[in-house]
Each structure stands twice: as structure tokens, then as C-alpha cells.
Design a protein that fits this description.
The chain is mostly helical and about 150 residues long. The chain has 2 domains: about 60 residues, no CATH class; about 80 residues, no CATH class. The chain has 7 helices and no strands.
Length: about 150
Amino acid sequence: MPEQKLTIVPITLHSNTENILTTKSTASSSSSTCTITNALTKAAEYTLNRADGLRAFLNDGRIEIDYNPTENATRPNVIGRKNWLFPISEAGAKENAICLSIVETAKANGVDFYQYLVGLLRDLPNLDIHRNPEVINNYLPWSKTIQAECGK
């Protein structure tokens, strides 16, 4: 399939657009005409309020037109939140919050969560954290050790 080349056409708003928006509709005709004019005015205002963002999107190919990737990343927690709305106990709710914090912190630091969890479950039971609490710093998702072992 041949490559398609995109052509970016600069947006130019008509100079009278602002005048159109500020002109009040008259009620000389039927009320349905006023409703259509009002809806058209609202649509034009909506477009004008977002014109700078649209220009930036068209001029810079790195800008996303929407934030679907962000929404998709948060969707599992939102769906889960409905399931976790009424925890059986306060302790269960606290444990769930800790688990979700670990998962999201690992993701935010570019760590493969499965590898990270396997490493935690393998190493943490054998550490003497009570006598040497600073050793836990080596197991945080942003530590160089974890980044080297579990980084994506």
C-alpha cells in the first residue's frame, strides 16, 4: 500500500464571524427560526472558543486530538471502583488501596508489573526489613535495581 501524505491546510476564520456571533437574533419570524439561529450561534461560539487548540493540533503532528489513551489507562480502575465501593471491612479497603497504589506506581515508572510483583514476592520474605529498613528503598519502582530488572 503506498504511503499517504497529509497536507495541512491553515485555518482562517472569516473576519465577520465575531460580528455574526454578537448579532442578536430578532423574533420577527416564527419561534422555530429563533431556535435554529440560537443553536447556530452556540455552535459557532463553541468552534471559536476552540479555534486555537485546533490550530495547534493541525500545526504540530505530536499533539493528540483527544485523550483516549489516558481514558483507557484509567478505565480498569474506574470499573473496579464500582466493584470496590462497599468493602466488607475497613482493613480490606486499606489493603486494596495499597495494592492499587503499588500497581499504578509501577506503571507510572515504566516497570513491568508482573516481573516486579514476582521479584517482590520472591525477595521480600527473605529480607530483614525490621533490622535494616532502608533496604526497602532498593525495591521501590523507581530504584535503579528495579528499573534494570523490570523496566519495559
